[in-house]
Specification:
The protein has one domain: Pyruvate-ferredoxin oxidoreductase, PFOR, domain III (Pyruvate-ferredoxin Oxidoreductase, domain 3), CATH 3.40.920. With 235 residues, the protein is an alpha/beta fold. The protein has a seven-stranded mixed beta sheet, sandwiched between helices. The chain contains eight helices and seven strands, in the order ββαβββαβααβαααα.
Length: 235
């Protein structure tokens, strides 16, 4: 299969890095799609940037136009991280406008809430319930809201909220660092992504180091099953 060159620019604190790609795989008709926007939000060390690259690579494998951008305060554990994955033929800019996200994939509850500006009543919010207070919050000593408070505020924006115990699933798979794979699997199970499950698995195999591949694939499967088994009562 012909592969496009996915170039990731080195991002400095508070800067935006761009990954842009368009490909036409051999023996695969190019798929047309106007626009599909995914916002990933959390803190450093949760695997957000790898997750965005997996989503973008899966879309590229299906012949879709992709733009991926990353914005972060400090490239360290505990700092806020936001990544945008934009898929479609009408996508030119790398960043998602406020209220235009089709999916908000939250790796941390408070960071999900803080990025709710990108959501609308049509947005699917899939959120990890694991709390990791960002360094900014720790410095100001402000109170971290309860999970119930956070979910109530999200429901004011959209009823399409799914809460996933991604950390528990990652531990069950064998490594806490696979929470990102568990969340991608959970998102795939909703049927809201414009890419096939097989393409996501191929992207995982391509991007995850061999010694960590099996545990990531297991976490992906556990995430998929966790949401797939409860489809009737998701919202």
């Amino acid at each position: 299969m012909e592969k496009s060159a996915l170039t990731r620019l080195s991002a400095q604190p508070a800067d935006c890095a761009l990954l842009s790609a368009r490909t036409k795989p051999l023996n695969v008709e190019e798929v047309r799609m106007d626009e599909f926007n995914i916002v990933l939000a959390g803190v450093g060390g949760q695997g957000i940037l790898l997750a965005s690259e997996i989503l973008g690579t899966a879309a590229v494998k299906e012949g879709l136009n992709v733009r991926v951008s990353e914005i972060h305060g400090m490239a360290q554990r505990g700092g806020a991280v936001v990544s945008n994955v934009r898929i479609g033929d009408k996508v030119l800019a790398p960043t998602v406008l406020e209220g235009k996200a089709d999916v908000l994939l939250g790796f941390e509850p408070l960071e999900t809430l803080r990025n709710l500006k990108f959501a609308s009543e049509k947005t699917l919010v899939l959120m990890n319930d694991e709390t990791v207070p960002p360094t900014e919050l720790m410095r100001t000593m402000k109170k971290y809201p309860s999970l119930n408070e956070i979910t109530e505020k999200i429901h004011r924006f959209t009823r399409k909220l799914i809460v996933v115990k991604a950390a528990d699933l990652a531990l069950k798979a064998g490594n806490i660092l696979t929470r990102n794979a568990a969340l991608i699997g959970a998102l795939a199970a909703t049927g809201n992504l414009p890419v096939k499950v097989e393409s996501l698995e191929e992207a995982l195999r391509e991007l995850v180091p061999a010694k960590y591949l099996e545990v990531n694939l297991k976490a992906f499967k556990l995430g998929f099953e966790a949401v797939g088994e409860n489809k009737s009562s998701r919202f």
